[in-house]
Amino acid sequence: MSHLFPNYQRKEFELVKGSANRLTDQKGKNYLDFTSGIGVMNLGYNDPELNQVLSDQANLLWHTPNLYENHLQEQTAELLANGKDYVSYFCNSGAEANEAAIKLARKATGKSQIITFTNSFHGRTYGAMSATGQASIHAGFDPLVPDFIYVPFNEIEPLKAVINHQTAAVMLELIQGEGGVVPAKESWVQEVQALCHEFGVLLIIDEIQTGIGRTGSFYAYEQYQIEPDIFTLAKGLGNGIPVGAMIGKAELAGHFSPGSHGSTFGGNKLAMCVAAKVVERINQPVFLQAVQAKGEQLFTGLLKIVEKNTKIKAVRGKGLMIGIEVEDPHTLNYLVDQLQIAGLLTLKAGQTVLRLLPPLTITEEEINQGLLILEKVLNSEAS
Ligand SMILES: Cc1ncc(COP(=O)(O)O)c(C=O)c1O
């Protein structure tokens, strides 16, 4: 018997090694990776420079508690602020980053109501799950944290109907990831921000899947001409080392006074040395321009493949975060399995969306290889 809880639906193979944008399973089968370990391995696998900083730090000191200064946290926080007046709190995962954001928003405003959106995903801990606008994720876990309200994504009137001076925060993903790779409309996001300003409400952007270069800018919010009060990161920040961050405007700093929040492992030295290097490497104009170009190459290639395929309903996304909407869950499962057999690892988002999140280091040639496999499988008779 397995001594694990069966809370994950696992495929019957194990990935045992990786290099750059490719993985190998226990039987020696090789895969081109269009998953990045669910948006985590933005710099690919077994990166020599990241291996080096991690092993240097491992040979020096693994962990110190947050009772002492930590220059690696200071360095990473400065890099994440990206020249603006933002301050960081470090934790170990996306859900924890969102917990911190929810707690800060309530403490800073003295209000409790938080508005989030239908089909959003913010994590599995109680606060983050309560923020998540999906009944299937709440099922069996009542009572949830009170005072979360869910309104339709990309629609302004339902938000106007509920936002008021008692609202602490509005929280959203700029591309709903788990919800099906659904980008927010730029004009809508700006209206949301304007409403937040009108009612003195904090705007929280969940960049856990969209941040760290994934959409072609270092943060996705940069493409929306907004300035979040709070935003959250995890996934790609540590390129596989567990780390999350909650980043807020400096004027909110005083509300997280000593003793108000914390984490034993948060900002751990191993995580911080890698995170600082990841941010340094990805937040470079040349690197981000390449992500945009590769995103366009993949998107255009997909449009060509699906233009005559009546079974594909839509292709959408930004940068290297792309979703292909198919007719039904059965087709989606079939496609993911067939792509894997053909040597391409892909993801699902929701019930009907095939999600592509290749490492940002994917090459032009590898994108063409992936497109060839996708063409064969998407246009095969059975799909
Ligand atoms: C947008 C978003 N927020 C939060 C989370 C939760 O992150 P974690 O699984 O690290 O807790 C995820 C994970 O998929 C996510 O995509």
UniProtKB/TrEMBL annotation:
<protein>
    <recommendedName>
        <fullName>Acetylornithine aminotransferase</fullName>
        <ecNumber>2.6.1.11</ecNumber>
    </recommendedName>
</protein>
<feature type="binding site">
    <location>
        <begin position="94"/>
        <end position="95"/>
    </location>
    <ligand>
        <name>pyridoxal 5'-phosphate</name>
    </ligand>
</feature>
<keyword id="KW-0028">Amino-acid biosynthesis</keyword>
<dbReference type="Pfam" id="PF00202">
    <property type="entry name" value="Aminotran_3"/>
</dbReference>
<dbReference type="GO" id="GO:0042802">
    <property type="term" value="F:identical protein binding"/>
</dbReference>
<feature type="binding site">
    <location>
        <begin position="206"/>
        <end position="209"/>
    </location>
    <ligand>
        <name>pyridoxal 5'-phosphate</name>
    </ligand>
</feature>
<dbReference type="InterPro" id="IPR015421">
    <property type="entry name" value="PyrdxlP-dep_Trfase_major"/>
</dbReference>
<dbReference type="GO" id="GO:0003992">
    <property type="term" value="F:N2-acetyl-L-ornithine:2-oxoglutarate 5-aminotransferase activity"/>
</dbReference>
<dbReference type="InterPro" id="IPR004636">
    <property type="entry name" value="AcOrn/SuccOrn_fam"/>
</dbReference>
<dbReference type="GO" id="GO:0006526">
    <property type="term" value="P:L-arginine biosynthetic process"/>
</dbReference>
<keyword id="KW-0055">Arginine biosynthesis</keyword>
<keyword id="KW-0808">Transferase</keyword>
<dbReference type="GO" id="GO:0005737">
    <property type="term" value="C:cytoplasm"/>
</dbReference>
<dbReference type="InterPro" id="IPR050103">
    <property type="entry name" value="Class-III_PLP-dep_AT"/>
</dbReference>
<dbReference type="GO" id="GO:0030170">
    <property type="term" value="F:pyridoxal phosphate binding"/>
</dbReference>
<feature type="binding site">
    <location>
        <position position="121"/>
    </location>
    <ligand>
        <name>pyridoxal 5'-phosphate</name>
    </ligand>
</feature>
<feature type="modified residue" description="N6-(pyridoxal phosphate)lysine">
    <location>
        <position position="235"/>
    </location>
</feature>
<feature type="binding site">
    <location>
        <position position="264"/>
    </location>
    <ligand>
        <name>pyridoxal 5'-phosphate</name>
    </ligand>
</feature>
<keyword id="KW-0032">Aminotransferase</keyword>
<keyword id="KW-0663">Pyridoxal phosphate</keyword>
<feature type="binding site">
    <location>
        <position position="263"/>
    </location>
    <ligand>
        <name>N(2)-acetyl-L-ornithine</name>
    </ligand>
</feature>
<dbReference type="InterPro" id="IPR015422">
    <property type="entry name" value="PyrdxlP-dep_Trfase_small"/>
</dbReference>
<dbReference type="InterPro" id="IPR049704">
    <property type="entry name" value="Aminotrans_3_PPA_site"/>
</dbReference>
<keyword id="KW-0963">Cytoplasm</keyword>
<dbReference type="InterPro" id="IPR015424">
    <property type="entry name" value="PyrdxlP-dep_Trfase"/>
</dbReference>
<comment type="similarity">
    <text>Belongs to the class-III pyridoxal-phosphate-dependent aminotransferase family. ArgD subfamily.</text>
</comment>
<comment type="pathway">
    <text>Amino-acid biosynthesis; L-arginine biosynthesis; N(2)-acetyl-L-ornithine from L-glutamate: step 4/4.</text>
</comment>
<feature type="binding site">
    <location>
        <position position="124"/>
    </location>
    <ligand>
        <name>N(2)-acetyl-L-ornithine</name>
    </ligand>
</feature>
<comment type="subunit">
    <text>Homodimer.</text>
</comment>
<dbReference type="InterPro" id="IPR005814">
    <property type="entry name" value="Aminotrans_3"/>
</dbReference>
